[in-house]
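A quick aside before the break. I want you to see a complete sequence-to-structure record at least once, exactly as it would be stored in a machine-readable document. Don't worry about memorizing anything.
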Amino acid sequence: MLQECLRVLNLSNASLRKATLRFTVLTMLLISSISGANAQYYFFQELEQLVDPTAIKHTINVNGAERVYWVHRPYGVNCQRQPTPLVILFHGGGGHASAIANKTHMSDVSDNNGFIAVYPQAKDSHWDDGRVVPNRPSGDDIAFVKALIARMEQEHYIDQKRIYVAGFSDGGWFAQRLTYEMHNTIAAAAMVASLQLTQTVTTYGPGHQPLPVVYMLGTNDPRMHWFGGPVHGGAVLSAGATINAWVKANGASPTPTVTQLPNTHPHDGCTVQLNYYSGAGGNDVAFYQITGGGHSWPGGTKSPASEGNTDEDLRGSHEIWQFFAAHPKRI
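That is the input. The structure line, written in tokens, reads:
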């Protein structure tokens, strides 16, 4: 109901959409309070699943299972008539598509830059990232992503040179797996708060086909330890080893161009350094080292204190798109 109300309004400005959402929420809350406890219960259930006011929920059958995803189409862009980039963003373990959309503000970046943002939902809220976790069935997620892209290409004029994946935490592990499994489809990938799983290296080998990648990693991440080590159901490489593996795979210079970003928000406990490794054939590696940063999306909604600091100097989603935009698939 909330999504339908706001989609009919078709507002072009993100701030107006958000203001209208707040007004709609307050209005419906008033109605539900008058209608009784049952109406309030169902209202809040719907509100918790809301991705954003302009994202539309879709389902697709993948090998007999119904899978769910949300699509945000950029305002003012005819995605059926002009080639449109596609960004698929994977939520973290135990999360929901609504959470990653709200955390990252990727839909606002989509509106400002004319790409389609897709937010898939993992089965049981965990992706097939390469780990073997007891009592966690396979979600057949590789097939899901392939089917999702095929569906998007059927319904929109997708620029096949500009199909990108990004992920947070467990979603980042899955995005890294896709760089192996779907290398011929993906133009570039972004991983936030997500180091390289040792299981991925074991499964696919130490080598990797070149691909432009961007990493955003916090030195104080309580879940992805900077120096690597055990994680639930597996282990991760250190930040240094993760980046070095891509630098080598991409034939990049081992000496990066280093840029210290302005510390515009000193209260956030973080500073950011960009280490940019120029790769052969444009297969660059961009590594944002967030000193003091925790398990969070830089520039996004603030994470709980238990997850560490959330950097506010770096507009993570904006910078990811700028990297993607500069790295179309070389066919």
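Two observations worth writing down. The longest helix spans residues 14-35. Residues 222 and 275 are 22 Å apart (CA to CA). We'll return to this after the break.
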